[in-house]
Amino acid sequence: MIGLGAGAAVLALGMNVGGVFGKLYSELAEAVDPQPVQELERMGVGRVGVFLYGILPQVKRQWTAYALFRLECSVRSASILGIVGAGGLGSEIALSIRYFQFDKFQLSQSFNNLIKNAIEAVIKIPNPSIVINLFQKNKEIFIQFIDNGIGIDQNKISRIFEPYFTTKNKGTGLGLSIVKRIIEDHGGKIKIEKNKNMAGTTSTINFVVQNE
After folding, report:
1. How far apart are CA 97 and CA 207, in angstroms?
2. CA nearest 161: which of 179, 147, 144?
3. What global pTM score does this model have?
4. I need a surface site. Which of 1, 13, 18, 177 has the fewest CB within 10 A?
5. b/e per residue, 108-143, with b = 16+ CB within 10 A?
C-alpha cells in the first residue's frame, strides 16, 4: 500500500509493538494489588493521582523490563527490515555488506550478538543508554556499539574472546568467540574495551575499504 521505505518499517514495527504494549501493560495494571488503589479513591484522589501513586509503583519494574526486551526485538527487526529495503540502521548495514560482498547472515548474527550483550548490560541500571555509530575514517569503516552498563572487569577483557569463557551466570562462552571468527574471516578486526569517561563498554569493529 505504501511500498518499501522507512515509513513502512516504522508502521510495521509501531503497529506490532503498540498492540503488544497496550495488551500487556493493561493486563499488568489490572493485576495490581487493589488495596492501595481503593485507599486513594476513598481519600478522593483523582484518576491521575491513583495511577501515579497506586498503580505505577507496582508495575513500573515490569513495564521497564518488558520495554527493554521489546527494544531488543525491535532493533533486530529493524536490522532485518532495513536489509530488505526498509531504510534505517539495517539499510546502512546492507549497503556495506553489498559493497564489500560480505556474508549477510553471518554479519547480521555478529551485530545482533553485540546488541544483545549491550542490552543485557544495561537492563538493570537506571538511565540505560546504547549508542551505535557507523562511520568511515581514512580507508577504514568502523561500527561501534557503546553502552553505559555494568562493564567488564579489566582483568577479564584479555580473555573475552576465548571459547567457553563467560562473565554471565548463564552462558556458553561461545558468542564472542564466534563473533571474532566471523569478523576476522571477513578481513576485519574487533576490539572490546571499557569506556574511559563513563561506565560501560565499547565494542568496535573495523574493516579496511578495498580499492575498486
Report:
1. 11
2. 179
3. 0.51
4. 1
5. bebbbbbbebbbbbbbeeeebebebeeeeeeeebeb
